[in-house]
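Comment thread on ticket #2218

A.B. wrote:
> Attaching the input chain for the structure job we discussed in standup.
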Amino acid sequence: MKKFVLIALITSFVLAILLSPFASSWPDGLEKVAEDKGFLSRTEGAEIWEKSPIPDYTMPGFGEGAVATGAAGLVGTAITFALGYGLAKLLMKKETIKA
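C.D. wrote:
> Ran it. Output below, let me know if you need it in another format.
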């Protein structure tokens, strides 16, 4: 089972790095509706979370482009895996952990 998780994690990292730069640059659904309804301009410059670790799906310090987007995909995948793995460990029965 540990070998499967490791292979799946490595595969996820590779896909995140290689495929993230090809993500659509078009706005997501919520942003598109805000644009169509005319209230998107009221949010410009008003950051919800000013210290976002990965703003606009680009990794700070990598500039703009494929490398920054791939790095953001890698970090996002790692964070998601760590949270999911940690949650799974917390929710597992104690008998299962001993095995």
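A.B. wrote:
> Thanks. Noting for the ticket: The chain is about 60% helix and 0% strand.
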